[in-house]
Write a structure and sequence with these properties.
6 helices; 9-stranded antiparallel β-sheet; alpha+beta
């Protein structure tokens, strides 16, 4: 789709903690393997929280290394003690995403040599804003439209928030979490979705498996491809033919 309202795509692989990843000298080897595609490096500290007798306290959760393309909104690799991820806000195609993710897995495996994969996840977030909100009845299938249908609103009454949250367990024990609905301006329900200054409708699909397995880049890449395909099937069943035409189906 040439004009798909896709605002964020992310693939992530988690592994048992590797404390050396906090060391810049250690991470330099990984940087050299991906620097051709992701030449910009930024680092920051993760901040978590701990709950104890003294209440909720901030806690240092380790170093984050972010490797970006020259256009930081295009592609970004994030590395921490427990995961590596690839994300895009200017998504081009599934084939490009899968190729980049496969290269990233090979680079990580060659450098870090992890033996265990704890979790694999893929997430796609679509967002509609502006005049599109008045046409949701034409763009979405009834099973995901619900109360977001403007035709059921009373005169002068506007639906500000309505979010559905469903989790589907698949035969291979993986799970697909689907969240969709209306989100108010300047609000979010998850750190993965940045707030915008206007009311919006979102479709947030997160497919993952938490079954520990051998860290095999080829097998993980195949699993990511399968998850992408399942997410796309859900998406196609959530939107109408008019949606596909409106946003430039290829």
């Amino acid at each position: 789709m040439t004009r798909a309202p896709l605002v964020h795509v992310i693939g992530q692989v988690r592994f048992p903690p590797v404390l050396s990843i906090d060391d810049a000298g250690f991470v330099a080897g990984f940087q050299e393997r991906i620097r051709g595609q992701y030449p910009i490096l930024r680092q920051e500290r993760q901040v978590g929280v701990s709950v104890g007798p003294g209440g909720v306290l901030p806690q240092d959760a380790g170093q984050l290394w972010r490797f970006e393309t020259r256009d930081p909104d295009a592609w970004q690799v994030t590395l921490s003690q427990t995961f590596v991820s690839l994300s895009a806000r200017s998504y081009t195609s599934r084939a490009d995403f899968l190729e980049r993710f496969s290269r990233l897995l090979d680079a990580l495996s060659d450098w870090l040599e992890p033996s265990i994969c704890d979790r694999v996840g893929v997430r796609y977030i679509d967002r509609l804003t502006g005049a599109d909100l008045d046409r949701l009845g034409d763009l979405l299938q009834p099973q995901v439209l619900g109360m977001a249908d403007s035709s059921v609103e009373l005169a002068g009454v506007q639906l500000m928030h309505a979010l559905s949250d469903s989790v589907f367990r698949l035969p291979d024990s993986s799970e697909l979490r689907a969240r969709w609905g209306v989100v108010p301006a300047d609000a979010t329900y998850d750190s993965g979705l940045e707030p915008v200054g206007q009311r919006s409708w979102v479709l947030d699909l997160d497919h993952s498996s938490s079954a520990a397995s051998e860290f095999d880049p080829g097998a993980i890449a195949h699993q990511v491809e399968l998850f992408c395909e399942r997410i796309y099937r859900f998406f196609r069943n959530a939107v109408t033919e008019q949606f596909l035409t409106e946003f430039g189906a290829q």
